[in-house]
Design brief:
Elements lengths: L2 H11 L1 H71 L3 H9 L6 H43 L6 H8 L2 H23 L8 E2 L1 H16 L9 H5 L9 H14 L2 H27 L25 E2 H13 L3 H11 L1 H15 L3
């Protein structure tokens, strides 16, 4: 028998095995190639997703920097406008130039009203400005991430100019509201009354409570201070952004966050005042009976006449650190950052 016959017989006897083996080898090759292709597709998809996330993160960080710069810029305008609208220097000059003025008590009471109202307005206006800009600029940022040409420069300027409503008519409305409530609150508090630090805490807590009961409550009516009825909205994109802004400002989340920031702002005022009280914790100051004087006197136990605290409170907003510290605190507030991130994420997602 020839070699070829033997080979033919061998293959004949084991033909099934060769077929199965061929199928297995061929299938393994196909599966390997399929797995390699799937792995390649996955790697490419992961790379694209990584690059997209990186681009999105960089764009969001750029939006946040722009937001912070805008806040710092407009807050300077706010401080100047507020100090001009609630100027205390005229009264101070009058008291200095004519100490024996027959209307001295009236001038002091007016000064007290302006000082307390200006601090309160500073906090309300600063919080509302920062919250509004966080919402607006992250809405714009979300639109621009999806399409760099989605929002024209004109539409951006018109949309962002909504803040002017807060800085113009909004400021005057809040100032009138706060002054009116403080006028009632201070009616039975004498300038000679000796005030503890916690008395001022209670005073500012009371003004917040009174403001919440008013029809013009800035927290509940937040949207009305920003969006008026005479805003041109013939542009579809602009109309959508204004509508979305209104919805966000009316949401429970934003209202709760605004209230939280207001409380933090008044706490900051208390901290500023505590420095003054701390510097007066010596034995020459009046403290309650029974307080130990042979050592440290807690600033919370010190009592100082209301009138003597007014110059300190006036300096806080006139040329002190309160406005800048407040704005810095709001910019760094983690809950406000989270709000901005959530708004950006919502409006930057592609369909």
């Amino acid at each position: 028998m020839s070699v070829f016959s033997k080979l033919r017989d061998f293959f004949g006897r084991h033909r099934g095995k060769f077929i199965v083996g061929g199928v297995l080898v061929g299938g393994s090759i196909l599966l390997t190639r399929y797995a390699q292709q799937r792995l390649k597709d996955w790697q490419e998809r992961e790379t694209r997703d990584f690059l997209e996330r990186t681009r999105k993160q960089q764009h969001f960080e750029s939006t946040e920097r722009t937001c912070n710069q805008t806040i710092l810029s407009l807050s300077g305008t706010l401080f100047k406008t507020l100090n001009s609208a609630m100027d205390t220097q005229i009264i101070i000059n009058e008291l200095k130039s004519n100490p024996e003025n027959a209307n001295k008590l009236e001038l002091w009471n007016r000064l007290r009203l302006l000082v307390l109202s200006r601090i309160t307005c500073l906090i309300y206006m600063s919080v509302m400005l920062v919250v509004t800009l966080r919402v607006q600029l992250n809405i714009v940022g979300g639109y621009l991430f999806k399409d760099a040409n989605a929002v024209s420069t004109h539409v951006q300027e018109t949309y962002l100019s909504l803040c002017n409503n807060l800085l113009d008519s909004g400021l005057q409305t809040i100032a009138d509201l706060v002054e009116g409530q403080f006028d009632k609150l201070l009616e039975n508090i004498q300038l000679s009354k000796k005030m503890r630090l916690r008395d001022f805490d209670n005073l500012f807590w009371s003004i917040q409570t009174l403001v919440t009961t008013c029809n013009g409550n800035p927290v509940e009516k937040f949207k009305d201070y920003i969006i008026t009825n005479n805003i041109p909205n013939d542009d579809l994109i602009l109309n959508n952004m204004i509508r979305d802004t209104a919805d966000l400002l009316e949401s429970d989340e934003v209202k709760s966050l605004t209230s939280h920031c207001l409380s933090r702002g008044f706490t900051l005022v208390s901290d500023e005042l505590s420095h003054f009280y701390l510097s007066n914790t010596d034995k020459s100051k009046e403290v309650p009976e029974g307080t130990q004087l042979n050592g440290f006197v807690h600033p919370g136990e010190v009592k100082i006449p209301f009138a003597k605290v007014l110059p300190i409170m006036n300096a806080m907003t006139a040329n002190g650190s309160l406005p800048d510290t407040l704005i810095t605190q709001l910019i760094m507030n983690e809950r406000l950052k989270t709000l901005g991130a959530n708004v950006y994420e919502c409006f930057s997602e592609t369909a």
